[in-house]
Design brief:
One of its GO terms (molecular function) is serine O-acetyltransferase activity. The chain has helices spanning 2-9, 14-22, 27-39, 46-59, 61-77, 84-90, 92-108, 112-126; strands at residues 128-130, 135-136, 141-142, 148-150, 155-156, 161-162, 167-168. The protein is mostly helical.
């Protein structure tokens, strides 16, 4: 509905909105397509990433729960977020958090190398570096997000907003959770 409204006001976006939103049957498909295209590189195929992301989104109720809670959090708590569609397509903090959620799921499925590749690509593309073993709750906002680093021992609870330039983690070699 939001994409159709945007299209009626800005016909220049017809190809873009059709490719990224209108041609997909669900929010999960839109997110998988968006992330796949953003993280694609010469060595990571957009279609392969799309299929991977969609598979995780279909398989994990926890990842979906986080996705929906994060999307609602942006719409409810971020005054810059006028529509869900705008957040989904353009808010790099939201997108980076969803890549983390997928990477965290993959890490827990013992697909650690793939989870680390996604972490690295998300860091390059979004300037947000979240280790796949960090513990992050639902309803998270990474507002502006540039320079956010969340290390492997960090714990972020539910309904937390984090601004740009924040690092959570430590330099000690003792393995302990940092909240």
């Amino acid at each position: 509905m939001e994409a159709s409204d945007s299209l009626s006001r800005e016909t220049l976006l017809s190809t873009y909105l059709d490719a990224f939103v209108l041609s997909h049957p669900s929010l999960e498909h839109v997110l998988a397509f968006t992330l796949g295209n953003k993280l694609a590189s010469t060595t990571l195929d957009a279609d392969d990433l799309y299929n991977l992301f969609l598979d995780v989104l279909k398989s994990s109720t926890e990842v979906r729960k986080g996705l929906y809670a994060d999307l609602r959090a942006f719409k409810d708590r971020d005054p810059a977020c006028k529509t869900y569609c705008h957040c989904l397509l353009h808010f790099k903090g939201f997108q980076a958090c969803q890549v983390y959620r997928i990477g965290h799921y993959l890490w827990n499925q013992d697909r650690k190398s793939l989870a680390c590749v996604l972490q690295s690509r998300a860091s390059e593309v979004f300037d947000v570096d979240i280790h796949p073993t960090a513990k992050i709750g639902n309803g998270i906002i990474f507002d502006h997000a540039s320079g956010v680093v969340i290390g492997e021992t960090a714990v972020v609870g539910n309904n937390v907003s984090i601004m740009h330039g924040v690092t959570l983690g430590g330099t000690r070699l003792i393995e302990e959770r940092r909240c």
